[in-house]
């Protein structure tokens, strides 16, 4: 057993579309524990720190603008290998091709229409999870 914690964000599209409950339902149905949760409008400083690995990429500025476009729900969850487990629940980055059964595959909109918008963020490694949890909580 490797009990870990990870950061999940319900991005502005997920909150605006009323999908926070459905995303929480999937997290809880999998057996993960909710440790902390809050609704906030992240500052540019927080988003710059959160997305520092993407600074300079073509999608960086539109991504940060999208993340500033409305409230976000930040969730701290715990569970056995939850970092990779939540990434599996979320599905691949582009919802256009994310697998059915995943959050992005079932609920996400085609990136041809809604580039950047893919409903959720999940930390991608133990190092990212520790760093991101310290930023958001
Ligand atoms: P991830 O969220 O699946 O870990 P990352 O590569 O870390 O994906 O990218 C962070 C976020 O940036 C994505 O979730 C998505 O919102 C956005 N993004 C990533 N790649 C692209 C792209 O090629 N075009 C537009 N937005 C992108
Ligand atoms: Mg990522």
From TrEMBL:
<dbReference type="GO" id="GO:0006183">
    <property type="term" value="P:GTP biosynthetic process"/>
</dbReference>
<dbReference type="GO" id="GO:0005524">
    <property type="term" value="F:ATP binding"/>
</dbReference>
<feature type="binding site">
    <location>
        <position position="104"/>
    </location>
    <ligand>
        <name>ATP</name>
    </ligand>
</feature>
<feature type="binding site">
    <location>
        <position position="11"/>
    </location>
    <ligand>
        <name>ATP</name>
    </ligand>
</feature>
<dbReference type="InterPro" id="IPR001564">
    <property type="entry name" value="Nucleoside_diP_kinase"/>
</dbReference>
<feature type="binding site">
    <location>
        <position position="59"/>
    </location>
    <ligand>
        <name>ATP</name>
    </ligand>
</feature>
<keyword id="KW-0418">Kinase</keyword>
<dbReference type="GO" id="GO:0006241">
    <property type="term" value="P:CTP biosynthetic process"/>
</dbReference>
<dbReference type="InterPro" id="IPR034907">
    <property type="entry name" value="NDK-like_dom"/>
</dbReference>
<protein>
    <recommendedName>
        <fullName>Nucleoside diphosphate kinase</fullName>
        <ecNumber>2.7.4.6</ecNumber>
    </recommendedName>
</protein>
<dbReference type="GO" id="GO:0046872">
    <property type="term" value="F:metal ion binding"/>
</dbReference>
<keyword id="KW-0460">Magnesium</keyword>
<feature type="active site" description="Pros-phosphohistidine intermediate">
    <location>
        <position position="121"/>
    </location>
</feature>
<keyword id="KW-0546">Nucleotide metabolism</keyword>
<dbReference type="GO" id="GO:0006228">
    <property type="term" value="P:UTP biosynthetic process"/>
</dbReference>
<dbReference type="InterPro" id="IPR036850">
    <property type="entry name" value="NDK-like_dom_sf"/>
</dbReference>
<dbReference type="Pfam" id="PF00334">
    <property type="entry name" value="NDK"/>
</dbReference>
<comment type="similarity">
    <text>Belongs to the NDK family.</text>
</comment>
<feature type="binding site">
    <location>
        <position position="118"/>
    </location>
    <ligand>
        <name>ATP</name>
    </ligand>
</feature>
<keyword id="KW-0808">Transferase</keyword>
<keyword id="KW-0547">Nucleotide-binding</keyword>
<feature type="binding site">
    <location>
        <position position="93"/>
    </location>
    <ligand>
        <name>ATP</name>
    </ligand>
</feature>
<dbReference type="InterPro" id="IPR023005">
    <property type="entry name" value="Nucleoside_diP_kinase_AS"/>
</dbReference>
<feature type="binding site">
    <location>
        <position position="87"/>
    </location>
    <ligand>
        <name>ATP</name>
    </ligand>
</feature>
<dbReference type="GO" id="GO:0004550">
    <property type="term" value="F:nucleoside diphosphate kinase activity"/>
</dbReference>
<feature type="domain" description="Nucleoside diphosphate kinase-like">
    <location>
        <begin position="3"/>
        <end position="137"/>
    </location>
</feature>
<keyword id="KW-0479">Metal-binding</keyword>
<keyword id="KW-0067">ATP-binding</keyword>
């Amino acid at each position: 057993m490797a009990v870990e914690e990870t950061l999940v964000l319900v991005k502005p599209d997920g909150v605006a579309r009323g999908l926070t409950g459905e995303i929480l339902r999937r997290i809880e149905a999998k057996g993960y524990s909710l440790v902390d949760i809050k609704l906030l409008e992240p500052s540019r400083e927080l988003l710059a720190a959160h997305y520092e690995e993407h600074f300079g990429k073509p999608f960086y500025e539109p991504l940060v603008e999208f993340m500033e476009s409305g409230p976000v729900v930040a969730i701290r969850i715990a569970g056995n290998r939850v970092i990779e487990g939540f990434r599996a629940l979320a599905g691949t980055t582009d919802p256009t091709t994310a697998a059915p059964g995943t959050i992005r595959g079932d609920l996400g909109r085609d990136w041809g229409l809604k580039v950047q918008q893919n409903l959720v963020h999940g930390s991608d490694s133990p190092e990212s999870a520790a760093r991101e949890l310290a930023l958001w909580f």
